[in-house]
């Protein structure tokens, strides 16, 4: 694949001019839409919903989506794992917009199922190399100063099935192990200071209260930087599958470290080399050695629409190309989009709040002429790191890896509007 | 009530010093918590959730809150209205944190119940003083460039029952007709430009597809400024009770104008004087005349915890005072908190993203000595507008009003930690 960055001509690059071109052709507005105005009974006639009373306010004390949206759900891939208790499902990214993931659609990854924890009986212990071992109830934790931060969480195995070629036909499956919510919690630094960290301490190990007792080693430097002990997501209590009542938030780092049902934080002077950081969550290279402690989720992006599960159904003319970008290093500074498999690139429009280590939404509004496209997006973060091609990744790391695939994704848009997961070479 | 702004002594004002004072007294950490570490079986013994597999990923394709959170729901007040189809329920603000309201907890206000609209059959018409009347399908609208913005929505009648004194014991009821979500939609300006607005046009009138056919007059200047025609909230499709599949977003202005189930926008040269802007949503003054076109929601705030529904249950020592502030004029620049009924004020800590016309979260972390408090908060926005006392409001507008009560709220915290809605004079 060519990595040249020859821009399209300025006229073709202008979003407005592209859109206007589409509109003046009458494919969206103008003739086609005006024709509807003259005789569409769905606007000229009174509909049932305009005629009869609907449900009142007592119908749903906790609301649910419209029945017309029943297809917007998390989905799993049956052959991926043997047991649902140690499996994964995926966020329907192709159906979502903006940068916030609704709590009910945040992907799940469990190692021993969803722990059913009674918050009144839940405890968090801090022990190890501390002056005073401490045990907190949930009420204790809610007496410390709180913070609210919007962060993406990405599983290290997101896009993992793509290392050896295109396997899964939809961004829900290829990229749906990422979500972004606003967390409310207490700074881990504050809790560690409360216990008093000994000068010999260099690492911490969070432990989960589920039956897998998930444990990971985290450098003390990160623990004292921006980690949160969180009890709320998007304003309300954590969902059970996201660690209710307490989870660790490790901004920008792989999701497996964000220990759910958090019950203990041990402070130590060296890493523990737990199962989940030795046989798992390491990157097996071509030479048989494994990279380990690969924590930061590098810059990544994906076009969510059009995509295999969100084909173009409206024919030629104005087309909104929409996608997500994120980086564990900080803010996204730029996303480029190619419609020809990486030969030419156009800078997309970033929209919505730009927050460090959060999802960013990008758009490219084009006039589609009906010819096949090879759609790609490429993210760059504020530190200048950018997303590689899949072949660049393979050249560096071989094809044995499962984790940390942030390669550029290609969607093949066909003339009939259907979309397929492909690779270009 | 005195409006003097004498600050507390610098030492007493320091959040850290207050917290440290509480901690060194052993009320939170230190002796009490360390004692737990020595012998709390809930941390020293393996619990059931640490022993047995939980539910797998196929349990809930669209997730729901923990059963332990069943009390976190919208609630109505039975005596407020005769029929649930033309009623209101309230967001449980006292249970939430941060600035995002989960979609299932956004308050409802209907005039003819929840319209059950089939999105495939829904149409939006733009007509009146335009060059080309247009009718859009939902698919048409999704071909225009999109925006993502986080905005609060407040019903003009929020706190309306407080005009004649304290009536409802809980911030869910006194202030729960406000929520804040991220909307995805198309700029109304773009759609109006598509139709071509005639030079004689000065107003627009959105109309709802529900059985009340809600209609309001909006100045063209606002319509061309920051209004959105929105189809998503917090990433997913609008909820039915929030106007699925389409609603108008009128940032900073009273919620009644954010027409749900939006089916038509008429462009005209004068206001229509509809029912909902004449007999309703106007402010009856003491002299019998009514203020009308009072659209902007002025700066307002409320302490959400402690509050009547969220009493202090942990006794003396560190206490997190948490609340929300918002202004239809733009960003919140400052929130002051008083613990003595408005005699002395301390500037609170604003936390989380600060976005124009969105909710802002504030905190004041104090060491509570167990004595009664008269808690108040007072918001100021970036334009210098600030929240008045209820008596200042009454002096200006009498006591006949229902709408636009942004007066300072007082909570009486008693020595036993229970909290009551009161007024101070």
TrEMBL record, chains A, B:
The record's PROSITE patterns line, in alphabetical order, gives:
TAT
Short name of one Pfam family: Oxidored_molyb
Residues forming the Moybdenum cofactor oxidoreductase dimerisation domain are: 293-409
Q: What class of enzyme is it?
A: oxidoreductase
- State the InterPro entries in the record: Ig_E-set, MoCF_OxRdtse_dimer, Mopterin_OxRdtase_euk, OxRdtase_Mopterin-bd_dom, OxRdtase_Mopterin-bd_sf, Sulfite_DH_SoxC, TAT_signal
User: What are the names of the required cofactors?
Assistant: Mo-molybdopterin
Asked whether the UniProt record includes Methyltransferase among its keywords, one would answer no
UniProtKB keywords:
Metal-binding, Molybdenum, Oxidoreductase
Q: Which GO terms describe its molecular function?
A: sulfite dehydrogenase activity
What are the Oxidoreductase molybdopterin-binding domain coordinates in residue numbering?
A: 111-272
What EC number(s) has UniProt assigned to this enzyme? 1.8.2.1
Q: Which PANTHER family match?
A: SULFITE OXIDASE, MITOCHONDRIAL, SULFITE REDUCTASE
Q: What is this protein called?
A: Sulfite dehydrogenase
Q: What is the lineage of its organism?
A: Bacteria, Pseudomonadati, Pseudomonadota, Alphaproteobacteria, Hyphomicrobiales
What is the name of the gene encoding this protein? soxC
């Amino acid at each position: 694949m060519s990595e040249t960055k020859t821009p399209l001509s300025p006229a073709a690059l202008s979003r407005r001019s592209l859109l206007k071109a589409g509109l003046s052709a009458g494919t969206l507005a103008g003739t086609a839409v005006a024709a509807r105005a003259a005789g569409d009974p769905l606007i000229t006639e009174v509909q049932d919903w305009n005629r009869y009373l609907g449900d009142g306010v007592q119908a749903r004390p906790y609301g649910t989506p419209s029945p017309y949206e029943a297809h917007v759900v998390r989905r799993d891939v049956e052959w991926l794992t043997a047991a649902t208790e140690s499996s994964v499902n995926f966020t329907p990214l192709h159906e979502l917009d903006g940068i916030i993931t609704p709590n009910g659609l945040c992907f799940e990854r469990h190692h021993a199922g969803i722990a059913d924890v009674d918050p009144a009986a839940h405890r968090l212990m801090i022990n190890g190399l501390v002056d005073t071992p401490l045990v907190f109830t949930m009420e204790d934790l809610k007496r410390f100063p709180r913070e609210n931060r919007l962060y993406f969480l990405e599983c290290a195995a997101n896009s993992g099935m793509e290392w050896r070629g295109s396997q899964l036909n939809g961004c829900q499956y290829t990229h749906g192990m990422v979500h972004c919510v606003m967390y409310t919690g207490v700074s881990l630094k504050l809790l560690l200071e409360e216990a008093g960290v000994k000068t010999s301490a260099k690492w911490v190990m969070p432990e989960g209260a589920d039956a897998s007792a998930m444990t990971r080693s985290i450098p003390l430097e990160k623990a004292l930087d921006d980690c949160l002990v969180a009890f709320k997501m998007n304003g309300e209590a954590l969902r059970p599958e996201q660690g209710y009542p307490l989870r660790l938030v490790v901004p920008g780092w792989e999701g497996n470290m964000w220990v759910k049902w958090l019950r203990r934080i041990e402070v130590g002077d060296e890493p523990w080399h737990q199962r989940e950081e030795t046989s798992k969550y390491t990157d097996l290279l071509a030479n048989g050695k494994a990279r380990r402690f690969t924590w930061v989720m590098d810059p990544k992006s994906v076009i969510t629409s059009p995509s295999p599960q969100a084909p173009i159904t409206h024919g030629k003319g104005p087309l909104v190309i929409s996608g997500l970008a994120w980086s564990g290093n900080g803010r996204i500074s730029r996303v480029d989009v190619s419609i020809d498999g990486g030969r030419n690139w156009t800078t997309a429009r970033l929209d919505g709040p730009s927050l460090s280590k959060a999802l960013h939404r990008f758009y490219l509004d084009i006039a589609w002429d009906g010819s096949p496209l090879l759609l790609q997006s490429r993210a760059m973060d504020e530190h200048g790191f950018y997303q590689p091609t899949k072949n660049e990744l393979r050249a560096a790391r071989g094809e044995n890896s499962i984790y940390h695939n942030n390669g550029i994704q290609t969607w093949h848009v066909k003339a009939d509007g259907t979309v397929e997961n492909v690779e270009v070479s």
